[in-house]
Specification:
Elements (H helix, E strand, L loop, with lengths): L1 E6 L2 E4 L4 E9 L6 E7 L6 E6 L6 E3 L7 E6 L4 E6 L8 E8 L13 E2 L3 E6 L1
Parallel strand pairs: 2-11
Antiparallel strand pairs: 1-3, 3-8, 4-5, 4-9, 5-6, 7-8, 9-10, 9-11
């Protein structure tokens, strides 16, 4: 079992930045590929970014490439999402997720563990 707790969400103006954190506890964090997903009202949960469990390979949704950066610190059992140049369409609840695999997946159904989510609101 892995427990995930997100933090760092909030209200920001368009063009601003936020840094989300996801602290993991339980099983060995470095055994898990990690992902960030988001869900806006009335929309499906969508992949934002992912990072592999060991070599730091990353993957991003086209909508956030060049603006968002995912990273992880295995010593701190934490994964981060740095979000820059935020847009109103980035407004959503952001979730981190873990899967016991080397590889990233863009499909939320492939993740076993989820945090409770943190709200990000971007005002235009």
């Amino acid at each position: 079992q892995v427990q995930l707790v997100e933090s760092g969400g909030g209200l920001v103006q368009a063009g601003g930045s936020l840094r989300l954190s996801c602290a993991a506890s339980g099983r060995t964090f470095s055994n898990y590929a990690m992902g960030w997903f988001r869900q806006a009202p009335g929309k499906e949960r969508e992949f934002v970014a992912g990072i592999s469990r060991s070599d730091g390979t990353t993957s991003y949704a086209d909508s956030v490439k060049g603006r968002f950066t995912i990273s992880r610190d295995n010593a701190k059992n934490t994964v981060y999402l740095q979000m820059n140049s935020l847009k109103s369409e980035d407004t959503a609840v952001y979730y981190c997720a873990a899967r016991p695999s080397i590889f990233i997946s863009g499909d939320f159904r492939n993740y076993n563990y989820w945090g409770q989510g943190t709200q990000v609101t971007v005002s235009s």
